[in-house]
Design brief:
By secondary structure, the chain is α+β, with helices and mostly antiparallel strands. The chain is built from ten helices and 29 strands.
């Protein structure tokens, strides 16, 4: 048997299962694989910063468990380790620790062909910055001098260790500040005078100023058969305008945002010495990506509310009818296996067809160079499944939905702004049972303003930075529709790097809905004396709140609860139309001792929301990473009523696997006993979120991070 497969019985079993893959790596005779590399004595540098820069590294584990399976072993070499010790010392010197020494502490033979390596570091005392001077800027305008000094001060501070990366950052920052003020031909040079004995250094940045420059002719290369006019419009670089480095960065991003190019590079022609007219010609090099994309696949959804099988199909053109317009079609037909779900694993008795069809057309350069226009119609059919418990007598209500959104969006620096108008038509029907006669066509229309400031280092897997966003909607009024309200939901996210590869992420959002012509009746209890008009008013309010109100729970919300499970609860007449008034009075009156929460309580939606999440994200091996998290949230039926004592706290563990479309995510959230709602709160006010094999937890699947 291959020696790599004899390291553990688990690996033997896995190699047998994966025999059809090149799953088991081999270790050459007489050599050893590296199981672990540990750095001792480091306190000023992160261990990951050190181990990432040396060649001696640990053997990766498949699924975080098995070495030598799928991935090759890392083979130990003493000569490589000696060179690595020199690399560690150079790394410390680059961080200002000129007296640092590294040595191989121990090479432990943990088995005949596996070792663990320890590297010991004596960091010594750092060389610290004594003084920072910027010279050569006396002749520049006051605003330019201020910009240069701010750029330098942002990277270099007195008494900090003399870090070469920060020196380079200060030099580049000063050069960028000059470029932003049109001084494209000015140059910055850095120097440091180091006193090893005193452990101090004086840093000098010398600016060689020049005259302000202007943009020259713009040449675009690599378009092939693509039209040039939309690219020039997106660039928005006028010949003769003052040179600006920021303008070049914004122009590059604007061309990338067209969605047509895999890469965009803007190269200013800056000869030395500069030309007499100080004009800077620009060369734009683009590499087109595929203009047409076809996608096809399928999936399964299996949670506490439903099980469905679906197909995904899509087509996208990034140069639709020329002009670099983007047109896409996405179709998701499927079938719900009713009533099969995590909490009720039984054979389905009904098949409920569902579908989602979405089209989108985007027009770049609408109104002005960087503003995009879009129109986004949708046609959807879906069942309304809100309860984790099922009674076969209940009707299954569905909606045929038409939605359309049109508007404009634009990016200003780190700000993204989107102004759109939305129209919805919701037509109820039944998959099974009888349709309540009070259910009518529902029309909703509202303008919306979406804004966000995005300071994250990466949108897919952020490691540091912040995100601040807000949604503001105004329904009804002069725009028509059955609902008039104001809805606002701000959100903030923060990302803090704990180490180079470990991230602490947090999110907080609140939501406020102020109904102007509905909501007073949506939690009213029907009685024997209720008139038909009262019943219609209640049903109307329930429909509107379902589509306009707040809910919490699910993979991007509170992961210990199913989708929409955190919400004020109550009786929904159109989900139990066959119940006689006497039965409703006895079984579905919350004040009645015979109240049946499982039979009657349904999430209704609410007017005030708060959600808070925090998680620690860390790598495991290769594309596999994990996260520990805690989520808390609440939805109140009252306006402007944030109930921080209603925690609905869930904590858990999640796994992520990186793919080209983002990480595939599985989270398991456990509802912490005693930290849900205050003692004494009437449990009949909320639905039963269900459990998983008797444990109060929920499974949440998703693509991309939770936030």
């Amino acid at each position: 048997m291959d020696p790599s497969c004899t390291h553990s019985l688990s690996a033997i079993g896995l190699c047998a299962v994966l025999a059809w893959l090149p799953a088991c790596a081999s270790i050459p005779n007489g050599r050893s694989a590296v199981d672990q590399v540990t750095v001792r004595g480091e306190s000023q540098l992160d261990e990951d910063d050190i181990t990432d820069r040396i060649a001696t590294t640990h053997s990766p584990k498949f699924m975080g468990l098995f070495r030598g399976v799928v991935y090759d072993y890392e083979i130990f070499d003493r000569l490589v380790l000696q060179r690595d010790l020199a690399r560690v010392e150079r790394l410390y010197r680059a961080r200002g620790y000129y007296e640092a020494h590294a040595r191989a502490g121990r090479v432990l033979q943990v088995s005949p062909n596996h070792v663990r390596v320890e590297i010991w570091v004596d960091e010594g005392e750092p060389v610290r910055i004594h003084e920072v001077r910027v010279e050569g800027i006396g002749s520049l305008p006051a605003d330019v001098k201020t910009a240069v000094r701010r750029a330098v001060d942002a990277s270099l501070k007195k008494n900090d260790p003399l870090d070469e990366d920060k020196l380079s950052k200060a030099e580049a920052g000063a050069q960028r500040a000059l470029g932003d003020k049109a001084y494209a031909y000015s140059r910055v040079q850095r120097a440091a005078v180091v006193d090893i004995v005193q452990h101090s250094a004086d840093v000098v940045l010398t600016v060689k100023p020049d005259r302000p420059a202007k943009f020259g002719h713009v040449t675009i290369e690599g378009l092939g058969t693509l039209p040039e006019a939309p690219v020039r419009r997106a660039l928005d670089l006028s010949e003769g305008a003052a040179y600006s480095q920021t303008a070049l960065v914004d122009a590059q991003q604007a061309v990338l945002d067209l969605g047509v190019f895999a890469s965009v590079e803007i190269i200013p022609d800056l000869p030395d010495p500069p030309p007499l007219d100080h004009v800077v010609p620009l060369r734009v090099k683009v590499e087109p990506s595929k203009l047409h994309t076809v996608t096809f696949g399928g999936g399964v959804e299996f949670d506490a509310l439903k099980t469905d099988l679906h197909v995904l199909a899509g087509w996208e053109s990034r140069n639709f009818l020329g002009g670099m317009r983007t047109f896409s079609v996405n179709f998701k037909p499927g079938v719900v296996l009713y009533p099969t779900r995590v909490t009720k694993i039984v054979a389905p008795s009904k098949l409920l067809p569902e579908e989602r069809l979405r089209l989108e057309l985007r027009q770049p350069g609408l109104i002005e160079a960087r503003t995009n226009g879009f129109i986004r119609p949708e046609v959807n059919i879906f069942p309304v499944l809100l309860k984790t418990t099922i009674d076969p007598k209940d009707p299954v209500v569905g909606y045929g939905e038409f939605k359309a959104s049109t508007g404009l969006d634009r990016v200003y620096w780190k700000l993204f702004a989107n102004l759109n108008y939305n129209f919805q038509a919701e037509q109820p029907f039944v998959y099974a049972g009888t349709l309540d006669p009070a259910l009518r066509l529902l029309i909703l229309s509202y303008p919306e303003l979406l804004t966000n400031f995005d300071f994250r280092d990466d949108r897919v897997k952020p490691h540091k930075g912040a995100y601040i966003g807000n949604s503001l909607q105004f329904a009804g009024g002069p725009f028509g529709g059955n609902a008039r309200d104001i809805k606002v939901q701000p959100e903030a996210r923060g990302y803090v790097p704990i180490t180079k590869h470990i991230t602490w992420a947090s999110r907080m959002t609140v939501g406020f809905l102020f109904p102007l012509n509905y909501g007073n009746d949506y939690r009213t209890h029907l009685t024997d004396s209720s008139s038909e008009d009262e019943r219609r008013a209640i049903v109307r309010d329930l429909q509107i709140v379902f589509f306009r109100g707040f809910f919490s729970g699910g993979p991007s919300s509170n992961r210990g609860y199913p989708l929409r499970a955190i919400s004020p609860a109550g009786v929904v007449p159109f989900l139990t139309p066959e119940l006689a008034a006497a039965q409703i009075r006895n079984l579905c009156d919350p004040s009645s001792p015979q109240y049946d929460v499982a039979r009657c309580a349904v999430p209704l939606g609410g007017f005030t929301l708060w959600e808070a999440s925090t998680e620690l994200r860390f790598p495991v091996s290769g594309p596999l990473s994990m996260a520990t998290f805690c989520d808390a949230s609440d939805v109140s039926p009252k306006r402007g009523n944030i109930r921080l004592r209603h925690l609905h706290l869930s904590c858990g563990l999640g796994a992520r696997y990186d793919t080209p479309v983002g990480p595939i995510r599985l989270d398991v959230g456990y509802r912490v006993p005693g930290l849900q709602v205050p003692s004494g709160t009437d449990p009949r006010e909320e639905t039963d979120p269900g459990d998983f094999f008797g444990i109060p937890l929920a499974l949440a699947f998703g693509i991309g991070e939770a936030f």
